[in-house]
Amino acid sequence: xxxxxxxxxxxxxxxxxxxxxxxxxxxxxxxxxxxxxxxxxxxxxxxxxxxxxxxxxxxxxxxxxxxxxxxxxxxxxxxxxxxxxxxxxxxxxxxxxxxxxxxx
Length: 104
Fold this sequence. Notes:
mainly alpha
């Protein structure tokens, strides 16, 4: 049974890996680009704003919310498709309750 569960977990995580990697890369790189764009007119003689205000005015907070909604939507549609039977079914037990269903 544990072997089947291990395969099931590996298959699910492999399916999610590309999406999670893309969201993590976007969450790291895009706020830096937005902050750089927001700080471009500043120079050493400028009266500096607080970092929190610059971060908020650059749009990074909105980006975080968009990425959060995107992750929630991805996992909810993935679960919904699995519940509706649009994806392949992975069984750990056959009809009689014995382990050894169709995981391969």
